[in-house]
Design a protein that fits this description.
By secondary structure, this protein is α+β, with helices and mostly antiparallel strands. It has a single domain (9-296), classed as Double-stranded beta-helix, CATH 3.60.130. Helix content is 21%, strand content 20%. The strands form four sheets. Strands 1, 2, 3, 5, 12, 14, 15 and 16 form an eight-stranded mixed sheet that branches. Helix 1 packs across helix 3. The structure holds fe (ii) ion. Fe (ii) ion binds at residues 124, 126, 256. Fe (ii) ion is lined by residues 124, 126, 256. GO terms for molecular function: iron ion binding; oxidoreductase activity.
């Protein structure tokens, strides 16, 4: 059993969870309001960042830079994520790192990866295929020279009429792992899941159109899927983050993506840092790995959520 004086990654996370109670009262109040209200997203601004101290945007540097300014940004991200829930990662994504960089990468321009640029990143729920997908995504903007928009919409703002609505509550949809998760690309046919779940008037949503199987044998489900995709497209909003702003996305109540932009590859590119948070660690007990113990395995069988 690790002691509190232990400086292992797992022990550091425990300390961060305690320290999150020391966040400024106004910020804690805003986060509690956000969490209890069931709002789909919020922007927290005002994190002081000195651009000159950040170094160059990845991937010009071979590895993410280690600087005091970035350490402060990471601490703020982890504190906020720890106040909402428990920071978690995916074991198959970026070696299970808890804090990940998002910036354009040469060769990825038109892929459906966070490192794409000239191609729009289709909106989605994060890790939609995964039964233990994160509850919240905390996106900290370090640099955004062209005010590139994060696309976003709460599912409650998307009109979904009957009979499409009822059909989306039925487990008739299959979602494949997205291509960022290297350890889950060979998984057998994904299980059938519902797009909408929970409270029928304020449902949770599970969509990733770029990785959803269209089964011609179930025309009704295909039609319902295309209907909701178009409805989301029509309501999609743009959130243009500025440096020092953190967008907190409720991953069960909203979808997000990114508009197209032109990468520079000059060390000044758009650069975000991201931490995921889970509301409950018990659901993933026995399915996590990593030296911090928070990297959720890609294949967790039929754990339901
Ligand atoms: Fe995403």
């Amino acid at each position: 059993m690790a002691e509190w004086s232990d400086d292992s990654p797992a022990a550091r996370l425990r300390k961060i969870a305690l320290l999150s109670q020391e966040l400024p009262v106004l910020l804690r109040r805003a986060l509690v309001d956000f969490r209890l209200s069931g709002d789909s997203g919020v922007v927290v601004g005002g994190l002081p960042l000195a651009d000159a101290d950040l170094g160059t945007s990845p991937p010009v540097t071979a590895t993410p830079p280690q600087r005091d300014e970035l350490a402060r940004a990471d601490a703020m991200l982890l504190l906020i994520a720890s106040f909402l829930g428990y920071p978690v990662s995916q074991a198959g994504v970026d070696d299970g790192r808890l804090i990940r960089d998002i910036s354009p990468k040469p060769g990825h321009e038109t892929t459906q990866l966070g490192s794409s640029s000239s191609g729009e990143l289709m909106w989605h729920n994060e890790d939609a295929y995964h039964p233990l997908r994160p509850d919240w995504i905390c996106l900290l903007c370090l640099r955004n020279p062209d005010s590139t928009a994060t696309s976003f919409v709460p599912i409650t703002e998307v009109p979904i009429e009957e009979p499409t609505r009822s059909l989306l509550f039925q487990p008739r949809f299959r979602i494949e792992p997205d291509s960022s998760n290297v350890s889950s690309t060979a998984v057998a046919e994904p299980p059938a899941v519902a797009v909408l779940a929970g409270d029928r008037s304020r449902p949770f949503v599970r969509l990733d159109p770029a990785f959803m199987i269209r089964d011609a044998a179930d025309g009704e489900a295909c039609d319902a899927l295309e209907t909701v995709i178009k409805a989301v497209d029509d309501r999609l909003q743009d959130v243009r983050l500025a440096p020092g702003e953190i967008l907190i996305i409720d991953n069960l109540r909203s979808v997000h993506g990114r508009r197209a932009f032109q990468a520079r590859y000059d060390g000044r590119d758009r650069w975000l840092r991201v931490v995921h948070a889970a509301a409950d660690l018990r659901r993933s007990e026995g399915f996590r790995t990593g030296d911090h113990g928070r990297a959720v395995l890609a294949d967790v069988g039929l754990v339901q959520r």
